[in-house]
Amino acid sequence: MKTRYIFSILTACLFAACSLDYDPIDTYSDVTEGVSQDSLQAVFKDKAAVLLHRQTLLDLFKNGQEHWYLDMLLLAESHSDNAYAGAPSSETTPFEVNSIEGSNTNLKRDWNAHMSNVAQANKLINYIDDVDDATLTETERQQYKAEAKILRAMVYFDMVRIWGNVPLVLTTAGDITSETIVDVYPAYFPPQTDALTIYQQIETDLLEGLEYAPDNNSQDKTQLSKSVARAMLAKVYAEKPLRDYDKVIQYADELTADGFQLVSDFSDLFGVQLTDPSLPASQTNKAIDAQARNTVETIYEAQYFTGNTNWVTWMFGRELNDWTFYFTWVKWITPSRDLIKAFNSEVGDTRYEQSVVFYQCDWNIYYPADNYAFMYKCRSAYNSIIKLRYADILLLKAEALIGKGEYSAAAAIINQTRNRAGLSNLPSSASASEEAITQAYLKERRLELAFEGQRWFDLVRLDKVEEVMNAVFSKDEGRPAQVYPFTSLSYILPIPQDVIDQNPNLVQNPGY
C-alpha cells in the first residue's frame, strides 16, 4: 500500500476552501475502511461501513443547522423585505443593507460546509460499487447511491443559487504520492463551472436518483425519497437556466399522486404541544414536543427529540421549552414592518400568528422593548426544520401556469393556500392580467412561506429584486439605510475571499 502522507490535508484543501487548519469530517482509516494496493484511495471496508456513512448523509441536514438553515434564513429573509438582520454585526448587517463582501465570515463557513457535504456524498457515490461484501445487494447499492445523488443535487442547488459559478466536484481526488503528484495535485484546486452546467448536473443527479431512491414513507419524512427528488426537480425547472413550466407542473402533479396535500390546520406545521395552555408561558406552559411530524404536507424535514434537540431555535427568539434560555441578547431574523403590513392587509390570515410573535425583551433596536417582534416558525427545541413542503411546490405549479398564460388556473391554486389561511378567494381582477396575477402570486408565496428561506430566491427567479428591494427602504421605517442599490449583479453573492486566496483557479463574481 502506498503511503498516504498528506492525504487528509489536501482533502481539507479541496472540500473546505483549502484551509489547512480545517478539520475534515471524513478521513480514511485502515481500521474502519478497506485499502487498495495500487495507489488508489481507500474504499469502504464492508456493508457496515457503507451503512454508517449513509446515516451520516441522512443526518447532514439535521446536524448542519448553521449553513442549511440559520444562514439560509439570513440570506433569504434578512436580505429581502421579509426581515431585518436582527442582531447587528459585521456578519449579519450587510445582508440587511446590501453591503455584502467576500470577507463575510458567514459566507465562508457556508461555502466550506456545502463543499464538505459534496465531498461526503461523492465518497459514497464513487466507492460503493467497489465494496467487496456479498451482503450488500445490488438493489441496496443503487438505492444508497441514488440517495447520495439527491443530496448532492440539493447542496449544489443552494450553492448555484447563492454564488452562481461554483466548482463542480464529482470525483474524489486520488492520493498524492511522489509518483502521482503531477496528475493529482491540480484536482485539489478545481476551477469554477458555469451555472448552466451546474444546473444540468443537478438535473442529472435528480433524475438518476429518482430511478432508484425509496418511495415516500409517510411515517418518516427524513428520507431522501423519490418524492424529494420530484420536489427538487420542480424547483430546478422553475429556475431560469433550465426553465420548463410543463415539467414543473408534471412533478408537482406527481407529488400529488404520491399522496401529498395541504394540512387542514397550518399550525400543525410549526406548532408545539404545551404542558398546560391555560397557564402563562413564563410559568409551566412550556413546549414538551412538536405538535406534529411527518404531516401529509411535509416532503423533507429534520426532526428533533429529547436528547437531540434543535439548538438553533434560541437564535430567533424565546425557546418555548425553556422560556428564559439565552433570552438576554438580540436575536436574528427580526420580522420587518413591511412583512407585518402585508400580513395585515387582509383580516383573518391565520398564518400571521404562526409566523410572527411579540414579546417583551431587553433591547429596542427595531421595535419598542415592551412589544418586540420575533420570527415564530421555529419556536422550540422540538420543532422540525422543514426543507421541502408541498405548499411550496403547489405554488410553483401556479407560477408555471402563469408562465403559460393560464391565469385563472393559477388563481385557483393560490386560492387553496389562501382558503387554508382563512382568506377568501382572490377577486376576479387578480387574474385579469399577467401583472395582476404575478403580484398576487408573489404576495401569496411571501405570506405562505415567510421565514422558510424562499423570499430572496423568489425575487431573483422572477427578476423582481430591483423593483422590490430598492423600494422597501423608503417605505419601511424600521430598516437601516441602504448602502448600495440592488442591480442585476446583486442576484448572486460574493465568493468568500479566503477561498479565492487559497485557490488560484477561482474568480470573484462581478460587482464585488
TrEMBL record:
The keyword Membrane applies. It holds the Pfam family SusD_RagB. Residues 385-512 form the RagB/SusD domain. InterPro entries: SusD-like_N (IPR033985), SusD_RagB_dom (IPR012944), TPR-like_helical_dom_sf (IPR011990). Its main location: membrane. Keywords: Cell outer membrane, Membrane, Signal. GO terms for cellular component: cell outer membrane. It comes from the Bacteria. Belongs to the SusD family. This is Putative outer membrane starch-binding protein.
